[in-house]
Automatic annotation (TrEMBL):
It comes from Desulfosarcina ovata subsp. sediminis. PANTHER family: TRANSPOSASE, TRANSPOSASE RV3428C-RELATED. The keyword DNA-binding applies. InterPro entries: HTH_IS21_transposase_type (IPR017894), Integrase_cat-core (IPR001584), IstA-like_C (IPR054353), RNaseH-like_sf (IPR012337), RNaseH_sf (IPR036397). Belongs to the transposase IS21/IS408/IS1162 family. This is IS21 family transposase. One of its GO terms (biological process) is transposition.
Amino acid sequence: MIDKRTIFEIHRLKHLGWSERKIARHLRIDRSSVKKYVGDPVAAQKRSNRASKLDPYRDQIKSLLDEDPTVSAPVVLQYLIKDGFDGKVTIVRDYLRQLRGKRKQRIAYIRFESAPGEQMQIDWGHFGSLPYGDTRRKLYALVVIEAFSRMLYVRFTHSQKQDALHDGLLQAFIRFGGCPKKLVVDNMATAVIERVGPMVRFNDAFLDFLRHFAIEPIACTPGAPYEKGKVESGVKYLRRNFMSLRSFADLDDVQHQALNWLDTVANVRIHQTTGQRPVDRFEKVKLHPLPDLLPDVRETQSLLVHKDFAVRFDGNTYTAPPWAIGKTVAVKADPAVVSLYLNDKRIAVHPRCWDRKKRIETPSHRQQVKKLRKKLMHDRQVATLMSLGSVAVDYLNGLLDAGQPIRKQVKRLLVLKDKYGAEALVYALTKSMAHKAFGADYVENIVHQEMAPKNDHPPVRLKNEDLNQIRLNQPSLAEYDTHALKERRK
């Protein structure tokens, strides 16, 4: 019912010479209402104040509207039914329209229908973001609809990259139990690279993906969204019916709720256009069977395993076995798992973390590092270097933390000891550690600049290479001092 202030505005604008159409557009009411109240200003008072089924629920509806201004009538109806409301969605829709003061836009377009299994349409929707610790990740949904039945599938992601598109389509085909003959897309960069008039150049990776399923891609004409109007409506329906008044813990929770919503609401409702349930019409659909070997649609990158035995991926670090340090591995990730491969062999698996600046570590990888340290400490060459004292031990630990090849580094350091002497090497190790420079190159540079070689000739090389590797540990002079003091006391 229009209030008296609105009636006053209708007559005021009419006296200014405004047309009824312009008044209706300005006040956001029906043109018929403007005509009615221009002819009879007291028409509102003639309406009977009959009780409405909606009266006990008006405050609840206002509360839901305050919580989510975009909430749709079917969602509100779901909440009201729980509290005993037995009315239809029409009265709820009329009341929401009254509260919002909006009117529908009427756009003329040509409707067309596809044969069962002939066509699917896809489109992306953006639905805010999800928090992970101090990080927020944007939330997207790939909506896929089978055109004949209006059967929906939704895949939520934190990305619209190429692999996310392929993963969403593959999951949709698996869910539907097959693939269509044609796939209608808009001009997204992951599908269409270039368009000149009717000539379309599709994304090579997209075509390579579709090749496995023998699907023909069809790109919509720019500025003609009605060409994929079914999926456009699907995105709007998802936004208004599913997203309203819901909360989510993470990406997995969103997807789980979405699949439940598809099974219990979206695909079993009476569709306004067809007058049938999508799940019933889908029984007439015969899709092409999926190939025996499905394509690998995971996000893939080639990354270096750093000195901390981990790779840097999507804002986080994921560990690898320590023996892979310095090697380039293939990182393959889906929304749930991050896997590391070396020469097509999987060497590590981690749960995917959507937070950022986190280290995801497998306990066995750290244990392998500890075992490696223990093994190296029992090496004869390493023991010789450690005999130089605590400085050498600390430097060895620094080399291990830096991921340096220990045996190679120790061999070079012992050569410097033979050439410049133990004292010069300890001095260089101390100075190198002060600058956190771990490596034989730094030590060699220091002793070369500041020390003179103690020996002008290299040691004699024997034919037996094992004998050349024999080294004597640095003797501790403190033991001799202790023995000398004992002899004096006697």
